[in-house]
Design goal:
Helix content: 25-40%
Mean pLDDT: 91
Largest sheet: 7 strands, mixed
Structural class: alpha+beta
Low-confidence stretches: 1-9, 11-21
CATH topology of the largest domain: Immunoglobulin-like
Strand order of the largest sheet: 10-9-13-12-11-14-15
Number of domains: 2
CATH superfamily of the largest domain: Carboxypeptidase-like, regulatory domain
Length: 341
Amino acid sequence: MKKISLILLGLVLLSACGNKHPKDYLSLSGKLENNKDSIVSIANQLGIVKKIKINTDGAFKDTLKIETGAIYTIQTNNNRAPIYLKNGYDITVNGDIEDFMKSLKFSGEGSSNSNFILAQIEKSQTLGNPQLILDLEEDAFKKKVDQIKFEYDSILNSYSNLDSTLYTTMLAQNKQIVTYFNNAYNSSKNMGKGMPSPTFENYADIKGGVKSLSSFKGKYVYIDVWATWCGPCIQQIPYLQTLEKEYHGKNIEFVSISTDESQRSGGSWEAAEKKWRDFVKDRNMSGVQLWSGQDFSFQQAYQINAIPRFILINPEGNIVNANAPRPSDPALKTLFTSLGI
């Protein structure tokens, strides 16, 4: 459930038009402690728009012109943070390279915008796992979401002299957070424990033929949705293989569904399937190995927007856990034991 993070951190790409300021350039200066870089850069989503020399004592100073007020990125070789820039501003940046994002402080004309953005990001990092919020009972869930919106609105209103377009955009975004949680909560009700699982049909089996979810009726099914290009997915493979050996012969099937597709294989579905088959063979992967091909209905039904994703289904085809623990998580074996597997 990383979408909430994507909503909040997406603001670094925000571009907002503002009223023309009397000055057609802005001044930017500052000092970075413990600095070892020679350049600090200002960039937007299209690339670097200005490079500023850093003196040996970490100080820098320059001017630049931009077309509209917007959130840019201030960065060194290994550090980056958002900064709101607009012609006419005179901003001073102070920070420490060893703790870049947390140490940054902006001052001067126009600095409130950047300080606000950092406060918003810091708040987003305290939310924790959104799934824990979605797992709350309805009354507790509504109170929690109302509290989150109140806290975000409070941060927004605690900063004076914000650019009007930034303020309006962020006010709307705070409402969008509520919309996201409400939609996700309503959806999770349909994917809750005991609800019938969405199905998949005729996925290619590495051993030949095809398999459907109904092929495993009468057994628990632990599903791993993954892809050959996914680093975190690959990290879980050894743990999954260990589990398969330990639970061999018990009333559970371990089913891996590859989502390899044409876009990551030169536009060829045949190449995508070959990549999957070669990977499974080279890794000597056990369990049931399936490829979804061009059918993404199962993933869409479970609203899978990040992998790996693990799902546990009971022998009757109902959901036990739509976001089951990973193979590396000891909580998974505890769950299996509680089910008598």
